[in-house]
Structures are given as C-alpha cells and as structure tokens.
Amino acid sequence: PEQDQEAEVGPANEEQEEVEAQVKEKKCKKASKQRKASKADEDGECAPEEAEPAVEKKGKKNKKLAEVTPDDEEAQDEETEKAPKKKARKVSQVDEVPAKPTKKCSHKSSSIIDLFEDEDVLAISKPAGLLCHPSPGFWDHGTVVHELEGRLPAKMLKHRESYTGEADSFIPRAVVHRLDRGTTGVLLLAKTPAAEDGLTAQFKGRSMKKRYVAILLGHPGGEDRAETISVNEPIASDPSRPGKVMISESGKVAKSIIHVHAYDEASDLSLVSVQLLTGRQHQIRIHCKHQGAPIANDDDYAGAAELAKFRKKFKVESTGGKRPLLHCWKMELTHPVNSDEPLTVKAPLPPDIQSLVARLWPDLPEDPENWPCVTKYRILLRGLPYTAEAQSIADFLKPAVSVPAESVRVPKKNTKRKYWTDATLRAGEAEAFVELSNEEAELVRKLSGQKMGSRWIEVILELDSRTNTDG
C-alpha cells in the first residue's frame, strides 16, 4: 500500500517517530482496554489513526514485523514465552499419567490430608470433588493422581489393565481401589508393585475391614427402629440411568451392615456407620435407599422432595459442592508387604458432616470410635463338653452378657444323645445371636480361654451377617 511505501522511504527521524508512536499505542491498549488509541500519554500522543497502516488482515503480521525495532522483537519473544500453551491432548492409551493439573483444577494439594506413608503405601484423606484417576473430561486436572504429582513413583503411574472394563479410563497401578467423586475419606495408594499385589489381594479376598460414616434421611431400621441392620441385596447396573445402580436379583452379591448411632426425631435424620462386607459401585448409597433412608444430599438416590426439605433446613457447605454426606472413616488391614504388621487408618470427619453432627448431637464425641453402638453379633463357642446343654452355656456367658438359654443353639442330637453335624455347627460347638454394646463385646472376647469343667473354651465373636427382615 501507498502508506507502507512512505514509511519505508521517508526520512529516518520520521520513521523512528512513527515506530515509537506505535509502541506507545500498544502499551496503552495493554494497560487498559478502555483507553482509546487517540488519548495522549505523559510523553506524547499515541499514534493517530492516519498513521496506521491500511493493509489487509493477512498482511498485518508482516507489516508489524517490518516496523518493530530490535528492542520490540525481544519484548515479543518474551511475551511469546509467557503465552499459555495449548491444552494437553486427550490420552486414553498411554503408558504414563497425563500432564500435571492445569489452572482449571480448583483443588490445591493442601486439600489432601496425609494419614500414613512409608516406602510401600501412601494413605490419604480424599476431599470431595476429586476423582481418583484420569478419565474423560479429567485427563489433565481434577484427580488425586494429578494432585499427588511427584509423590508416586513413575513405575506406579503406568497404566494397568482394568478388570472393571473401563477402556476409556486411565487407571495407574498405584490406584488399587476408588471412592466416588463426592465421597471423602481414606484412600490407599500403592507405591511399589509388592504393595499393589498385597492390597489388591486383600480387597479381592474381602479381608480388609471398611467402615463409612453417613447421615441419612430417615431411619434405616424401619418401624422397630433397629439399631443394627444387615442388608444382603444384590446390585446391578440401572439400564435406565447410565452410571447408576439398582437392587436386582440378577445382580452381584452385596452385603452391608448399618449401625445407627443417633437419631433426631425432629429433623428425621440418622447418624450411621456402615460396614462393607463386599465392595460394589454405590453399594452404601443404594442399600440405604433400599432401607427407606437415602444418604442426605444425594442427588442420585434421594427423592427430590426429601432433598428440598433437607436443604431448606440445613444449608450444608461442602468444598466439593453438592455431594452425598458419605465419608470413608476407617480401614483395617494388614500391611501389604509386612504381613505381620496390622495397619489401621482413620480419616477425621470432613467439615460438612462434622458441623451437622455438632448441631444435631452436640454431646457426641468427635471421634466415631467413641460413638454409642449396639451391634448384632454371633457368639461361637468351641471345645465344649459334648454333654453341655444350652443353660450351662448361657451360665458360662453370664459374666459378660445375659443370654437366654433359648437363644443358645447347640448341634442336633438323636435319641441316643449322639450329635448330628449340620451346615454350621459341629460336636463341641454352640452359637448365640445377640446384640452387644462395644463394652459388652469386649467382655465376651475376654471369656475366650476360660474353663468350663475341665475344658478350655474358645470364644469367637463375629458380626451377624444374616439378612435382616427389613432388608
């Protein structure tokens, strides 16, 4: 264009003045978008309109390169280095975890609380709102794996084959189990292949004890207000709601034991802990719903009217937004590498649950370990004299707990007073199903090793996993 030619052949001082004016104009626009190009600064005026090159859009880049000074080129290089890079591409079939969290991640590393760590295992308290591993929509941010960048060995961040069939997810070897995005609490991560194998074996073998804390809308014990509820209901995927589950006879076996620690009649809310005997997707959430008491604040399984009533009365604030009030409180296991070392990991209650408990039940201790609890147990006695009757067994248990003789079960006998073995009991064994407090349960355990007549009696205390009539 004609104006470009004038800029090239004009006097040197005019060309320099024009360049300086354009640089000042650029600085003015960067300092404030509201400043107009024609406004004067302290040293002079920004470039007037007639001084701007009248070139096509495609030619602007070349025009600017032709007019900038060496100092301006260095400034442009510096700005180019500071410019944000393009978002990492989606990776589903890779060998390592995607890039570290971007600015889109609203969580800070400080939101993750360390509970235990050695050379093999890392146990953390997962906050609400974080996924456990990368998946569609969360390839470069928003997961525990990204938050713990640099703390897990590179070999444990390799992709492992998922037996869950999730081909679209990236599950590192370190992630041996998962919590839902909205669920808080204990999450175990493997730092070595040996720990990965040991933890996986315990999860699959169901030898690990898992205890959750939740607040429910209603009472799960039905009209009788039972304080211990065993639920044995199979779970299957809900075809009408992708990603959700339902109770179905054709589903997988799922067993839970719900312990009610407190109930508030005015608000119709229950404080419970739940022991998982299996580990299915959304198991606690669907089992509690099946008992007529869904988890508070659960958009997926609680009714709209129940949620509206709860949220109107209790304005629960959670770091992860609206989330089910469910927390993985405790895990008891053996160390995955040092098998002789027991390992118990507990995560403190999150602020949203803690504040609600303090408001409704101010006299309760902060630690769920000290909450009142009555639990259904099976007392199994072994090594009994073959002639022992139900009454003598009830008398043996009396120092710890009062058990009616009719509640004691012994093996069947024929007319010759010989014992017939059945599916559960053998000769010299007996059982009783009772409800015990924590203190009573401890006294029963201490009976093991005591004598009845000339025999040393073994006493075994097990949780009653029979199906509850309400479940």
Features:
single chain, 471 residues, alpha+beta, 9-stranded mixed sheet, 19 strands, disordered N terminus
- Count of distinct strands: 19
Q: What structural class should be given to the helix and strand makeup? A: alpha+beta
- The residue ranges in which pLDDT falls below 50 over 5 or more consecutive positions are 1-14, 34-109, 467-471
Overall mean pLDDT: 78
**Rounded radius of gyration (Å):** 34 Å
| Count of runs of 4 or more consecutive helical residues | 11
Tell me the fraction of residues in β-strands, as a range: 15-25%
Helix residue percentage: 10-25%
What is the chains' assembly state?
A: single chain
Backbone shape: globular
Taking the alpha carbons of the first and last residues, their distance comes to 85 Å
SSE string, helix = H, strand = E? HHHHEEHEHEEEEEEHHEEHEHEEEEHEEE
Largest sheet: 9 strands, mixed
